[in-house]
Amino acid sequence: MEDEKRLADALTYILKKNNYGVDTAYDGETGQAMAETGVYDVIILDRMLPYKEGVEIVKALRTQGISTPVLLLTAKDSVENRIEGLDAGADDYLIKPFSTGELLARVRALGRRKLAQLGGEKIEAYGLTLDPLRCELTKGEEVIKLTLKESLLLELLMRNVGQVITKEQILDRVWGLDSDVEISNVETYVHYLRKKLTFSEVSIGTIRGVGYCLKGI
């Protein structure tokens, strides 16, 4: 299992060096729990992981309706193994060892696919409709204009109704890991957004010491 950890650390370093925000899990159960939050643009998943195997994780995610693109890494290069992974719901397959250039190219391609899925898509929750491209929130005939950061924050909460989103996840998704913005900015924008949500029956709940979740009143 030490080889898998070294690979994970190497991939984390490469991706961060190329300006990607990265969260890393070293076993299948932790990785699946992270993936189930739905906050990621692309998932890179090793087929051989402790506690839960990669193909099982992909199947579980797809069963739950999580459509995040998955790049499956494997040392098994038989056609049958590739078919099994793709049939389970993986979007792409990369056989070890691979070049850094090919890895980054495949991540870029999957990232574009994610953007294409989201392009023009409106999000609905608790009677509210968010148009991320226009940064507009509507309820019936009433339209509220949001700033870009407010829209990104609300989008994250609306895509994960019923789940708690940590302040660190919000900071990563709304501002980016390389930003100098402090965690207090998250609290400030949650305050701004709460004021704009007063026209609806929706609120942002605080889970003390953890983060926030969207709630219907």
UniProtKB/TrEMBL annotation:
Residues 1-111 form the Response regulatory domain. It comes from Desulforamulus aeronauticus DSM 10349. Signal peptide: none annotated. Residues 120-216 bind DNA. This is Stage 0 sporulation protein A homolog. May play the central regulatory role in sporulation. It may be an element of the effector pathway responsible for the activation of sporulation genes in response to nutritional stress. Spo0A may act in concert with spo0H (a sigma factor) to control the expression of some genes that are critical to the sporulation process. Keywords: DNA-binding, Phosphoprotein, Transcription, Transcription regulation, Two-component regulatory system. One of its GO terms (molecular function) is transcription cis-regulatory region binding. The modification 4-aspartylphosphate is found at residue 46.
